[in-house]
């Protein structure tokens, strides 16, 4: 079976490779190559091209529409795909707008008979929109909004204008609409000026404007939330719609199974759920929980019901007791051969299965297998195992059972018993969908809506359970809650908030693309957005360099600092004769693009005074800088460009509060280490840097585990669980935006 699939992926009709086939229909080379990298889309697009009869090539417009059919056609209406393809090839449907309308129509129709008249009306078949029609619509919109367009010039929201035209001419070619709008703008406004390219400034509240002007000039108004933001389940059918066909299962020896619920079964389900959405995420028993474990149920809670249904499956002739060894099962599956015991009498299988349950058959000597389709093109229909003998106590059920159900048998049944409305799993389980619905149909049970999504893949890390397990067990990291890992425990220990994770997940949405990779900095953006609002500001110096203010006596001077960007000055910070700055903020040689301290140069100490370096004290090697002498400007007449963070002595002659800072960075050097053969060799040796002798302001002494702070100019930090009364430990959650590094690194 594997060999056959590989052969099919290498060539299409007439020996054409998929890449050649896709280029022939007009896809650009980049899109074609990306498509070949996705086996599912490759198979879909190849099938669509053959259905369309365009293996020798076609117009690029037709090809692009066929590509959209291959990637977006509603799964519940596959029976109507050939009809839609005929409309595309014959140019009766020739624009993306018509195609989207067609998708909506067939999705609502599902597997019911297609009303051609209604379909053509809904898709604008036969409606020709001329160039003159589009020009007239654009002229009308420009007349209605001329005053506002002249005022806003090239800052006018072209998308709004485009939307107005589409309302008047729904089936107009969007490319032509855009061209005419651009041409009309140029005729009205002329060449762009420098002012047109400036960023717009926010205006104060103005008096009410005319209704027709409102949409275009309110540039600062917050965007309306999308339908998906208002209702996260909008991408799925509602529970009440789960009577429509959404999956077709093809057999080698019987009619197609169109998976759907009868009205009676669905009504019984809705009576229990009240029409609410109940989702299921796949279990991941790897020692540490993910978000799907917020409510865990166990299959063992249903062992009795699952067993009784297995007996019923045998009675209906859909399961049998088999005595093949694992190697024999593998061999027979590869050769698509039936087991010698596949057609044994039902009564015989019932007795043997009862013997299995009562512990009368040795472990490994018998299994219960589902009688599916050994000639199917889907290897997950090759009589999967339903039950195995295992004389091992169960963590929850104890020693009551010596036979245990397989995942392929139990998970769909438990979904049904728990009245799950939407069963969600990752894309690698997509080929198991046929087995899922075959079993529920064979038992006459309620069928949840199954939807597969891609794994969340983030750059510079690994998400595979096996790889994470190796990192932990081989001690490449410091446990499952190591702040460098993307486990929830690791993220929590790093100081990442739940709300920033939720914002990140909402932002990336849900996708079925199995080669998507989300950049790490996208997650970091949401973390910064959250912590910028909630983390108190303070100052810590990681690598202290002593600065003695020579023109200041030993008296204490209280300064005002801010805990929050817009807060009143409410945090008193003491300023003494001796302060400490970062070693990296001092250079012996100054330069124009450097804003730190240097001999003879002035900088501003944050919230305090300007200081000027007057002397550098070197060590015996005449290179090591021991301390700096400086003078401060009490009247603040000096206006230096550079601003440095600092920490003062806790009291005259006493060093500041000493803390430990752990600086975390990307765990791997490569963006996608999982694709490397030697992925462990790609570990970033600098992913964790421990600074043991950092200095902090005294107010941090009372910080508790989990408290979050912004260390000015350094990043956001959280108090780690390794902290003790003797010494605080801070984990860096994320760095700040790179605003202070100009010339300083």
From TrEMBL:
Domain Glutaminyl-tRNA synthetase class Ib non-specific RNA-binding per the UniProt entry, residue ranges: 19-174, 177-250
GO BP terms in the entry: glutaminyl-tRNA aminoacylation; post-embryonic development; reproductive structure development
Limits of the Glutamyl/glutaminyl-tRNA synthetase class Ib catalytic domain: 295-532
A GO term for molecular function: glutamine-tRNA ligase activity
Domain Glutamyl/glutaminyl-tRNA synthetase class Ib anti-codon binding: 535-633
Enzyme Commission number: 6.1.1.18
Entry keyword annotation includes Protein biosynthesis: yes
EC category: ligase
Assigned GO CC terms: cytosol
Keywords: Aminoacyl-tRNA synthetase, ATP-binding, Ligase, Nucleotide-binding, Protein biosynthesis
Catalytic reactions on record: tRNA(Gln) + L-glutamine + ATP = L-glutaminyl-tRNA(Gln) + AMP + diphosphate
Pfam families (alphabetical): tRNA-synt_1c (PF00749), tRNA-synt_1c_C (PF03950), tRNA-synt_1c_C2 (PF20974), tRNA_synt_1c_R1 (PF04558), tRNA_synt_1c_R2 (PF04557)
UniProt superkingdom: Eukaryota
InterPro entries: aa-tRNA-synth_I_CS (IPR001412), Gln-tRNA-synth (IPR004514), Gln-tRNA-synth_Ib_RNA-bd_2 (IPR007638), Gln-tRNA-synth_Ib_RNA-bd_N (IPR007639), Gln-tRNA-synth_Ib_RNA-bd_N_1 (IPR042558), Gln-tRNA-synth_Ib_RNA-bd_N_2 (IPR042559), Gln/Glu-tRNA_Ligase (IPR050132), Glu/Gln-tRNA-synth_Ib_cat-dom (IPR020058)
Limits of the tRNA synthetases class I (E and Q) anti-codon binding domain: 643-720
Family in the record: Belongs to the class-I aminoacyl-tRNA synthetase family.
Protein name: glutamine--tRNA ligase
The species this protein was found in: Sesamum radiatum
């Amino acid at each position: 079976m594997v060999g056959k699939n590989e052969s099919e992926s290498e060539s299409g009709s007439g020996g054409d490779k998929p890449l050649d086939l896709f280029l022939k229909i007009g896809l650009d080379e980049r899109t074609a190559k990306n498509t070949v990298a996705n086996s599912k889309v490759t198979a879909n697009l190849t099938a669509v091209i053959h259905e369309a009869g365009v293996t020798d090539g076609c117009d690029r417009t037709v090809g692009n529409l066929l590509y959209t059919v291959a990637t977006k056609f509603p799964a519940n209406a596959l029976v109507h795909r050939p009809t839609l393809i005929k409309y595309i090839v014959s140019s009766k449907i020739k624009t993306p707008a018509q195609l989207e309308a067609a998708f909506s129509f067939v999705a609502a129709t599902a597997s019911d008979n297609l009303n051609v008249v209604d379909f053509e009306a809904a898709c604008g078949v036969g409606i020709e929109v001329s160039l003159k029609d589009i020009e007239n619509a654009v002229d009308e919109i420009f007349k209605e909004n001329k005053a506002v367009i002249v005022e806003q010039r090239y800052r006018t929201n072209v998308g709004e204008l485009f939307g107005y035209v589409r309302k008047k001419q729904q089936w107009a070619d969007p490319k032509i609409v855009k061209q005419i709008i651009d041409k009309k703008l140029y005729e009205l406004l002329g060449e762009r000026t420098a002012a047109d390219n400036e960023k717009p400034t926010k205006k104060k509240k103005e008096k009410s404007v005319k209704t027709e002007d409102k949409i275009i000039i309110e540039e600062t108004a917050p965007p309306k939330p999308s339908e998906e933001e208002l209702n996260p389940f909008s991408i799925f059918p509602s529970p009440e719609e789960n009577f429509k066909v959404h999956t077709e299962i093809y057999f080698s020896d019987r009619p197609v199974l169109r998976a759907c619920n009868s009205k009676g079964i669905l009504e019984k389900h809705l009576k229990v759920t009240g029409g609410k959405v109940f989702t299921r995420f796949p279990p991941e028993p790897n020692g540490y929980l993910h978000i799907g474990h917020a409510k865990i149920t166990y299959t063992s809670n249903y062992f009795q019901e699952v067993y009784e249904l297995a007996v019923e499956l045998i009675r209906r002739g859909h399961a049998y007791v088999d005595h093949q060894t694992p190697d024999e099962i593998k061999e027979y599956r590869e050769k698509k051969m039936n087991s010698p015991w596949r057609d044994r009498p039902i009564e015989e299988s019932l007795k043997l299965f009862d013997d299995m349950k009562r512990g009368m058959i040795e472990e490994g000597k018998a299994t219960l297998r589902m009688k599916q389709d050994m000639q199917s093109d889907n290897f997950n229909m090759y009589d999967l195992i339903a039950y195995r003998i295992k004389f091992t106590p169960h963590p929850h059920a104890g020693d009551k059972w010596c036979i245990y159900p397989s995942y392929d048998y139990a998970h769909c049944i438990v979904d049904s018993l728990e009245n799950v409305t939407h069963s969600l799993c990752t894309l690698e389980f997509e080929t198991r969908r046929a087995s899922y619905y075959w079993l529920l149909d064979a038992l006459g049970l309620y069928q949840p809506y199954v939807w597969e999504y891609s794994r969340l893949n983030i750059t510079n890390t690994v998400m595979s359970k096996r790889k994470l397990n190796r990192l932990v067990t081989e001690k490449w990291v410091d446990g499952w809650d190591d702040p460098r890992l993307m486990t929830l425990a690791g993220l929590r220990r790093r100081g990442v908030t739940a709300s920033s994770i939720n914002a990140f997940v909402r932002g990336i949405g849900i996708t079925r693309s199995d080669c998507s990779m989300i950049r790490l900095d996208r997650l970091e953006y949401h973390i910064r957005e959250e912590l910028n609002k909630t983390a108190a500001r303070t100052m810590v110096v990681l690598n202290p360099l002593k600065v003695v203010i020579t023109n200041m006596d030993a008296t204490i001077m209280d300064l005002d600092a801010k805990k929050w960007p817009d807060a009143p000055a409410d945090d008193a910070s003491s300023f003494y004769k001796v302060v400490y700055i970062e070693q990296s903020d001092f250079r012996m040689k100054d330069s124009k693009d450097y804003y730190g301290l240097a001999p003879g140069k002035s900088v501003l100490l944050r919230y305090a005074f300007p200081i000027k370096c007057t002397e550098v004290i070197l060590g015996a090697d005449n290179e090591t800088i021991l301390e700096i002498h400086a003078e401060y400007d009490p009247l603040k007449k000096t206006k230096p460009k550079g601003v440095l963070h600092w920490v003062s002595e806790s009291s005259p002659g006493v060093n500041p509060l000493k803390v430990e800072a752990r600086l975390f960075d990307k765990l791997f050097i490569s963006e996608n280490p999982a694709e490397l053969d030697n992925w462990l060799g790609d570990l970033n040796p600098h992913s964790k840097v421990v600074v043991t002798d950092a200095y902090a302001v005294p107010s941090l002494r009372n910080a508790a585990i989990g408290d979050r702070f912004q260390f000015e100019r350094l990043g956001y930090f959280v108090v780690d669980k390794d902290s003790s009364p003797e010494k605080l430990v801070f984990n860096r959650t994320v760095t700040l935006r790179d605003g202070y590094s100009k010339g300083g690194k």
